[in-house]
Amino acid sequence: MRMKYLSLCAALALVAACSSTPEKKVDVAAASTATTTPTAPVQKPTGPVPGSKEDFVVNVGDRVFFGYDKFDLTPEATATLDKQAAWLKKYGSVTITVEGHADERGTREYNLALGERRANAVKNYLTALGVDLARVQVISYGKERPAVLGSNEAAWAQNRRGVTVIN
Amino acid sequence: MPTRQTLTALRRAIALAAVLFLAAAVPAKAELHLDISKGTVEPLPIAVTQFYGEPVGQQIANVVEADLERSGLFRPLDHRAFIQTPDQLANGLPRYGDWKVINAQALVSGTAAVQPDGRLKVEFRLFDVLAQQQLTGLAYFTQPDGWRRIAHIIADAIYKRVTGEDGYFDTRIVYIAESGPATTRQKRLAIMDQDGENNLYLTDGRVLVLTPRFSPTAQEITYLSYFNNKPRVYIFNVDTGRQEVLGDFPGMTFAPRFSPDGNKVIMSLAQNGNTDIYLLDLRTRRQTRLTDNPAIDTAPSFSPDGSKITFESDRGGSQQIYTMNADGTNVQRITFGAGKYGTPVWSPRGDLIAFTRINGGRFSIGVIRPDGSGERELSTGYLVEGPTWAPNGRVLMYFKEKPVGEGGRQRQVRLYSIDLTGRNERQMLTPTDASDPAWSPLIP
């Protein structure tokens, strides 16, 4: 499940990147300029508006994943957060709330604390990269808001997450 | 400060005048007694007759009978086998032979009559059929809508007379009523009688609420609310419906419980990725930090005398249960079994701590002595969590969640109770899915 999600993101990012090749190397945020690319007929003629919530979710990636009962950032997570920090520096007026989530295989209150740890791990990484502390809030939902329903490791892995939400 | 003197909605209708009449005479040689401290108890065959008089007498008897049956300690007998009628019992002595022949060991009779002032007078008597004597008899006066509470009080009196221990039927449960898909679950604060009746929703579900706990008077509830997307500990007054945030903390507060004297709330504060335990004095509003450790310290619970606190921490590398003095000194780890241990709750009797254990992908509810000895498992399942004690320390309630539907993608969550012996597991009847139960003390 998680792989599917990631590859979907990758495909979207690829389309956006291809369509923006005539532009200079502004990472992946310029999808909306590619209105007439003939090689991608299934694409809507307009993509996310640069700097929008949708732009962030589609072209940057709004979430990172954690191991069971872990709150350290994986290499995949820091790669995503590097992109998030770059985007946030480009759009300096945006404020964010980092949500920390846990899977259902822990007790409720422990998971609230664990979600708070995860949200802070994300926050600390972003602010270390220069995102102003005043722009970042955190909230923990523990196991209260799973992203995916299911009773297996694939589902739980997607629920152990930190999600950066554009306010 | 919320006053603790005002009458609660629970008490409003009921002016109790309990009068012991015809107290048991000389104890007979083989007096009826159930020793519930032993492992196995054969349920006591009991005949609960219709209370003679007003039609509500039938309903009172039904509630008494259902309470006793649910305890697992009594086996109510089929009314169709009864020979002596309620009016005969109301107007004379039991014909013990009539009850002995259907194998009743205990007999309950009663009357319900409206008084000139409009109040309802309810009397009951408990008889030992084999010893042929009355064990107890009490009369109560109530406004007519207080009949159900009187029935629970009578069931408590019978339980106490037969087992020698306080009952737990005149109590309420506060819990979280759940509805909707798991990804956008709606959660409401709800309250009901211990038998599932008088269910009432206290919040409307627009704001996520979790982990309610009663004050020692059952008049206030402390809980976690996500009001304004700021998870904080709140206090809810059952009388007035007033909600108030507790304390002024710089981060998420959660896992609140009252102290046994009701004057303090203990809770966790999470800040910058670290969770510690704090005490808030409700009178002075003074905050005291009790743990100072980079680990997660949460789920605190006072011992009944208020001198100790049990809590969970992952300071040793994984979630385990600890005890400490109420001032935060003398921290001792008490769980060392395989897996993780959390949600410790000190028994009202002081002798045990109930917990949730996660081991090998299974969740279970268990109990352990405060010194770490005598660990026992009571119930297990896909997800079993959050034990709470009946006020007599003999029964536990918790929630069980299991995958249902196609591919196990939806959840069913229900409340269950079980004897401390690990027997008599019963599902509570709730109108919706339900979690996070907390048992009230006996209603004052």
How is this structure best described in words?
The complex is a heterodimer of chains A (167) and B (444). With 167 residues, chain A is of the alpha+beta class. Chain A folds into two domains: 1-48, no CATH class; 62-166, 60s Ribosomal Protein L30, Chain: A (2-Layer Sandwich), CATH 3.30.1330. Chain A has five helices and four strands. Chain A has helices at residues 2-19, 53-60, 75-90, 108-128, 153-159; strands spanning 63-65, 96-101, 136-142, 161-166. Chain A has a four-stranded mixed β-sheet with strand order 1-4-2-3. The longest helix of chain A has 21 residues, at 108-128. Chain B is mainly beta and 444 residues long. In chain B, strand 9 and strand 10 form a beta hairpin. In chain B, helix 2 packs across helix 5 (147-163). The longest helix of chain B has 17 residues, at 147-163. Residues 1-29 of chain B have low confidence and may be disordered. The interface between A and B is large, with 29 and 47 residues.
